[in-house]
Amino acid sequence: MNDGDVSRQIQQMVRFIRQEAEEKANEISVSAEEEFNIEKLQLVEAEKKKIRQEYEKKEKQVEVRKKIEYSMQLNASRIKVLQAQDDVVNEMKESAAKELLNVSRDHHVYKTLLKDVIVQSLVRLKEPAILLRCRKDDVPLVESVLDSAKEEYASKVNVHPPEIFIDNVHLPPAPSHHNAHGPFWYA
């Protein structure tokens, strides 16, 4: 072989090696690009998942805050309603206490009230004999309505009229002002 043939063969081998190297470099480049894209996708998906989880967590926190706020507003409105009811009841109680001071002054109204209270008591107790306690000042008035109260009770409940005895122990006298009507005013 002469120098020209050797040189051509060397040139041909160099081209072959260069071509092989370029193909290998292209394969490595393509492989690296694929790995890069896969890694990039995995990172992007992981971050997306993380962001979704954070968003869901914050959304739940907002939802819980809304529920708490709603519950607090509901409780506040319930408290307002209860306070308003309490105010009305206290006003009615105050008004009734003031009116009670005046009831015994109108003899006819007071007599009717006593009879109705006695009938209501008899209906609640449903006993054949009752010991009735009243104020000392009211004994004559109570005695005057006993017969009609017994008859009204007997007709309402369809029983024989009960025996009613007036107790010798009397309730305290009427209060002089409306604040005396408390749960223990006669104790």
Q: Name the average pLDDT.
A: 90
Distance between the terminal alpha carbons, to the nearest Å?
142 Å
Number of strands: 2
The CATH class assignment of the domain at 106-187 is Alpha Beta
Enter the CATH topology name of the domain at 106-187: hypothetical protein PF0899 fold
Q: Runs with pLDDT <50, length 5+? A: none
The secondary-structure class comes to mainly alpha
- How would the global form be characterised? rod-shaped
How much helical structure, as a percent, in the residues? over 70%
Question: Cα-atom Rg, whole angstroms?
Answer: 51 Å
Task: Report the sheet-strand fraction.
Answer: under 5%
The number of helices is 3
- The CATH superfamily of the domain at 106-187 is ATP synthase, E subunit, C-terminal
Along the chain, the helix and strand elements come as HHEHE
Please list the strands of the largest sheet in the order they lie side by side. Answer: 1-2
User: Main beta sheet, described?
Assistant: 2 strands, parallel
Level-2 CATH architecture of the domain at 106-187: 2-Layer Sandwich
GO molecular function: proton-transporting ATPase activity, rotational mechanism
Protein name: V-type proton ATPase subunit E
InterPro entries: ATPase_E_C (IPR038495), ATPase_V1_Esu (IPR002842)
Pfam families: vATP-synt_E (PF01991)
Describe this structure in words.
- The chain has 187 residues and is mostly helical.
- The chain has a domain at 106-187: ATP synthase, E subunit, C-terminal (hypothetical protein PF0899 fold, 2-Layer Sandwich).
- Helices cover 74% and strands 4% of the residues.
- It contains three helices and two strands, in the order ααβαβ.
- It has a two-stranded parallel sheet with strand order 1-2.
- Helix 2 crosses helix 3.
- The longest helix is centred in the first third of the chain and has 101 residues, at 3-103.
- The chain is rod-shaped.
- The chain starts with a helix and ends in a 21-residue tail after the last strand.
- The mean pLDDT is 90.
